[in-house]
Write a structure and sequence with these properties.
By secondary structure, the chain is an alpha+beta fold. The chain has a domain at about 5-25 and about 30-65 and about 130-145 and about 170-185 and about 230-365. Helices cover about 20% and strands about 35% of the residues. It has helices spanning about 50-65, 90-95, 200-205, 235-245, 300-305, 330-335, 350-365, and strands at about 5-15, 20-25, 35, 40, 45-50, 75, 80, 95-100, 100-105, 120-125, 125-130, 135, 140, 145-155, 160-180, 185, 210-220, 225-230, 265-275, 285, 295, 315-320, 345. Helix 4 (about 235-245) packs antiparallel against helix 7 (about 350-365). The longest helix is centred in the first third of the chain and has 15 residues, at about 50-65.
């Protein structure tokens, strides 16, 4: 089993938006004042979209544009969980889950086992799965000072009801990592995050054609590899590819009625690596007196491509939308001729996604 991961880096470009709100603005004297999510670093303010919100957009794109049937949610008091069935629901596979439950212990004939007092013995059937898809928040690449703007709910009759909201324009960056070796692959170890399947689902998977494979990293008490359940190659390929393809049509964000913004990538880097290290976190930075001007760090990109050359598998695809950061077009194109780094292809955003997904077909075992 190859340990390979998709490492992705994106930039989005939005104007007059408020993509992820933080509730009441406690810094305002007005009752109807909403704050956008922001965080401070080195004394500067940066707006952001939470990683959870990004995942919500991602799930919706897969449901609406890739035809995924999403795992139903069960609510029990203050607890909510999905169906925890990654065989049927691909989002349980890609996004992970935790479902805590107990079930009746059965004997060989399928009847409930009872204790001396006649009570049915219960067994722990809790299942959890670490998400193969991991992502950062989407944060502004430079410092941003949101503007306080007034809006109102008004009709022809009655007084208008004013409210205050924060809006901003920004180039924003995000990172994600998709563990290709774990897509459609499930362990059953007695360890949080690694007991992925119930006994019933494990038996169902094998009955439907899943195979048992050796885990190259986990051994039993006798020093032999533990077993994992792996779905058919075509299923795993489709789930990984559709997850990445969804970035072409992803949409979302708060206040889209009046502050519609396009959150599809305007710049993307896609690469397969043999380690979990994400190498592209610092290829974009900022400058200026208030760090408000975004700059692309070409030298930093070349540096990480050289430093981690041995960990890249196959071609690195970089996509840029025409009209976005046109000033770096020639420098990006020059990367294709540098022999000291892995092979790089400079394309449009959608072409970069498509060609990377073609590469994945040969990389996923």
């Amino acid at each position: 089993m190859k340990n390979i991961k998709t490492q992705g880096f994106i930039l989005i470009d939005v104007d007059v938006v408020s993509l992820n709100n933080a509730g009441k603005n406690t810094q305002s004297n007005n009752d109807n004042a909403i704050a956008t999510k922001s965080i401070r670093k080195n004394g500067r303010n940066y707006v952001y979209v939470s990683g959870q919100a990004w995942r919500y957009w991602w799930r919706e794109a897969l449901q609406k544009n890739a035809g995924w049937e999403l795992s139903p949610i069960t609510r029990d008091g203050k607890i909510a969980f999905t169906n925890a069935d990654p065989l049927k629901f691909p989002d349980d596979d890609i996004f992970g889950y935790m479902r805590a439950a107990k079930d009746a212990e059965l004997d060989e004939s399928g009847e409930p086992v009872k204790d001396k007092k006649g009570n049915i013995k219960m067994t722990n059937v809790t299942v959890t799965r670490v998400s193969p898809l991991k992502n950062s928040a989407i944060i502004s690449a430079s410092s941003v000072r949101p503007e306080e703007n007034w809006s109102s709910m008004s009709r022809q009759l009655g007084d208008a009801v004013p409210y205050e909201k924060q809006e901003y324009s920004a180039i924003m960056k995000g990172m994600f990592s998709l563990d290709l070796s774990m897509v459609g692959t499930f362990s059953n170890y007695d360890r949080t995050g690694y007991k992925n399947l119930s006994i019933a689902l494990q038996e169902e998977a094998i009955k439907d054609g899943a195979e048992e494979i050796d885990d190259p990293f986990v051994l039993d008490s006798k020093g032999k590899p533990k077993k994992m359940i792996r779905l058919a190659k075509s299923v795993r390929q489709n789930r990984a590819i559709e997850t990445i393809q969804a970035l072409k049509t992803i949409s979302g964000g708060a206040m889209q009625t009046n502050n519609m913004g396009d959150v599809t990538p305007k710049f993307i880097i896609l690469a397969t690596t043999t380690t979990g290290n994400h190498p592209f976190s610092h290829v974009v930075g900022s400058k200026g007196q208030r760090d408000e001007e975004v700059i692309f760090n070409i030298d930093g990109l070349v540096e990480v491509l050289k430093d981690y050359k041995d960990t890249f598998a196959g071609t690195i695809f970089i996509g840029r939308r025409s009209g976005f950061m046109d000033e770096i077009a020639n420098e990006l194109k020059a990367l294709e001729a540098i022999t000291e780094i892995p092979v790089v292809k400079i394309l449009s955003v959608n072409d970069a996604i498509d060609q990377y997904c073609e590469l994945l077909k040969s990389q996923i075992e």
